[in-house]
Amino acid sequence: MHLSRAAVLGGGPGGLYAARLLKLAYPSCEVTVYEQGTPDATFGFGVGLAAGTQRKLDAADPDTLRDLVAAGHRHDMTLRVGADTVRVRNDRLIGIARTELLAILHRHAEKAGAALEFGSRRTAAELDADLVIAADGVSSETRGNGPFGTRIDVGRGLYLWCGTDFALEDAVFAPVHTEHGTFVTHAYPYSGGRSTFLIETDERTWRNAGFDVSTAATPFDASDEVSLAYLGEIFAEQLRGRPLIGNRTRWLRFRTVRCARWSAGRTVLLGDAAHTAHFSIGSGTKLAMEDAIGLVAALREAPDLATAFARYEAARRPAVERLQELARRSQLWWESFPARLHLPVERLMVAYMTRSGNVPLDRFAATNPDVVAAALTHYAGEQPPPSPDAVTGWVLDRPLIHNGRHYPHRHPARVDANLVTLDEVLTDPWDETGDAVVARARRARADGADGFRFTGPGDRAAVLTRLDLAERVRTEVGGLSVVEAPAALREDLAAGLVSGRTDLASFTGES
Q1: CA angle 14, 19, 23 (to 5 degrees)
Q2: What is the domain partition of the chain in residue ranges?
Q3: pLDDT at 205 over 80
Q4: pLDDT (tens digit, 9 = 90+) per residue, 256-303?
Q5: Which fold has domain 158-239?
Q6: Beta strands in 165-254 (DSSP E)
Q7: Which residues on adjacent β-strands are paired with residue 506?
Q8: CATH class of residue range 5-42+50-71+95-151+257-333
Q9: Amino acid 373: pLDDT
Q10: pLDDT at 510 over 60
Q11: Which of 137, 240, 249, 326 suits 389 as a labelling partner, its CA being 20 to 30 A distant?
Q12: Where would I find the FAD-binding domain in this sequence (predicted)?
């Protein structure tokens, strides 16, 4: 396919990277990036690049990746609850300043021959181009004005982005209890002297602290100084007494963007314009840059734009939707995070790592055996096996004493207790349907039920949601919880046991 002129709307990571790759693939094509901001008006702090993303960038454009890694700041991950701390190693995770990331991508786009126009607010309709790549972000005007079948889901929790003027040793997750409720930070270093400091909370805590008022009083282009001052005080230990730094910092609710189609005519969506995934997965930059790789590959192989767009979407949508589902589960976990703070910190780390179903328990045991060993010791009161391959079976085979009843292992064929079956099929255990299940469970307990058997479809998504529902009922109502699932999902059940999501497992079909 021949391309004479291509336009990119948006000078973020996805747009700049797409411009470079497109110019490398089509040297004679005139490629122009239109960015409404200016190079010195970049907002945000640091972004993360995990090992998998680095591998894909290396395959597509090793020169750019080399500069990104050189400018990045490698770190591990720490969870701190009160005086207790647990650390997880992550050898290839790096943070990089958003300003530095954009400067590198800007430089490489221009080096490839792309033109960049800053301070230029343009629309797809007014551009004289064979191809328009809309990489204009989560609030994309292109998407809003086009036939893309957009759906936007808004999260329950609230969060804000801020920063610090020093580099943390590791990424840190740390909750702080206050008179208003619980706030939790997701913080990580991204340079030798800076860290991102994201803080989130639930709506009740947010309102109790008066942040609904401070948010309403904060202009769009300013930072919520009232929130920053208060949060700087309660996170003083993590901040070493330093202040929080704002940059258009205000409380937000995460918006998950989904589109029924990613292209229309000569225009194609890329990155946050097409889809978003919750920040707790660290996926915005990853998805945008991988979209750029996929789009340019499709353009090179297809005979026309329509075919290229179809191939691009067919190749990228499964990966995007998978990550969006992982992010959705992670978002729900973080929005309900304070309910888990009774767990020993090592078990809480296992719960965190397995929250989306993306990290198998045995694999986590292989990469961080000391953390998992401590979690399993808390779980069973005895030393676990040395081999990671034996962890799942060992977890399921531990005995349990619950309200005077003794179970020789955690997957008994029969449970001698008065259990009420909860078989509701839902996607969000904390929505109104989940509330109704909890209310029903409370009534059942008041009527003498010993606990609950959670059953339903046998697909993995349903089982993971069932474990989350069991956790909520177990935490808020009490009683014995038994989660049913096919034997093929025994590792998910084992992770649920260690994470405190259920007391017992039951393999479907056993009697």
Answers
A1: 150
A2: 5-42+50-71+95-151+257-333, 158-239, 344-507
A3: yes
A4: 999 999 999 999 999 999 999 999 987 899 999 999 999 999 999 999
A5: D-Amino Acid Oxidase; Chain A, domain 2 (3.30.9)
A6: 171-177, 182-191, 194-201
A7: 484
A8: alpha beta
A9: 96
A10: no
A11: 326
A12: 105-324
